[in-house]
Amino acid sequence: MNFTKESLALQLNKVFERYKDLAVAKDSHNLVRLHGSIPVDILACGFHLCQSYLIDICIPLNSDKLPYVIDTGRSVAISYRHIYDDGVLCLDTDTRIRMRFLDGFDLLQWLQDFVEPYFFSYEYYVRYSSFPFGDREHGCQGILQTYQELFDASSIDAAYKLMRYCCLHSYRGHHICPCGSGKRLRNCHGNALRNFVADSRKLEILKKDLLLVERELIG
């Protein structure tokens, strides 16, 4: 995931077609910032949200940094656990978002699958004190929860063991799966592990995440 001027220009055409009120507010050599309101019209979990939100979208260029959203309209209470003090929205774990971009996600899909559902989840939480699509912790706990989902592991502990296997071993289908099932990898989490082993970019992200997790565990 690395936006250049050229690749971003193509994606922005699709974004502006969907979100008519968004426009470029800043265009420099290292950052493009969009400003405007986006409509959110989602019906899920017995709740219908139809509302617009004023935001800034900041897209770093020629960098591995993720795009991020600022709640310019102050629609989200600063006491909400998934917004930072500077108004930047905590959309999901960086790991999950990076993996989606590596799988071919574009900026429009990011807006539709992360930004719009963020506002829906917030409004739902305000009304019902629960999260409609589940919730993740911040920090290393959130990283482990993400890999639990990516590996379809039964527990966070199993996800951690699968992460370690990816980093320390070459894939061998006849190995016993580290998740603790007693099955061979090919009959257990083999497909999920091969998805990382076969993609050096995903494996590099996993290695960095494992280092963060183990530093926290040791600390």
From TrEMBL:
Record-linked InterPro entries: SEC_C_motif
Full protein name: SEC-C domain-containing protein
Organism: Acutalibacter muris
